[in-house]
Amino acid sequence: MSFQPTGITLHQESRLMEIGFADGQTFSFPYEYLRVYSPSADVKGHFPGEEVLQVGKKNVRIKDVAPSGSYALQITFDDGHDSGIYTWEYLHELGSRHAELWHEYLERMAAANASRESKH
Predict the structure, then answer these.
(1) The pTM is what?
(2) Bridge partners of 65?
(3) pLDDT tens, residue by residue, 9-53
(4) In the β-sheet with 72-77, what is the strand arrangement from edge to edge?
């Protein structure tokens, strides 16, 4: 299966990143979703069970997107987070599992009594 992108578009006003893939699928990723599912160690931890719940990211914006070799993107968010390397395969997985993963995130937020709203 080819996870190569055929196009990437940032929609700053609606805070959506749209990515088309060579397999014909196109996904729209809310910036908040990309931020809370960053593949960085700051978010995922180094080992299972070390994940850090990302709160207050509802209005996060993407400042920059840069290629990381020919296999990934490095995304810089306006909250300063820039250490996640989003492989094409990982982005395709995030797109394919969006509803499921978003539901899991909202459940974790509710269980932690946390808010998607930023505090400033």
Answers:
(1) 0.94
(2) 75
(3) 999 999 999 999 999 999 999 999 999 999 998 898 888 888 999
(4) 62-68, 72-77, 85-87
**CATH class of this structure's domain 31-111:** alpha beta
| Cα-to-chain-centroid distance, residue 69 | 19
Can you give the C-alpha Rg of the chain in angstroms?
14
> Tokens in use for 58?
């509802």
- Closest by CA position to 108, among listed 36, 47, 30, 1: 36
* CA angle centred on 36, ends 27 and 93, rounded to 5°: 35
Stretch 59-79: mean pLDDT: 95
The residue extents of the domains of the chain are 31-111
Q: Which residues contact 88 (CB under 8 A, 6 or more apart)?
A: 3, 4, 5, 21, 71, 72
- CA separation for the pair 54, 56 (Å, rounded): 7
Residues 83/42, Cβ–Cβ less than 8 Å: yes
Average pLDDT rounded to a whole number, residues 81-102: 96
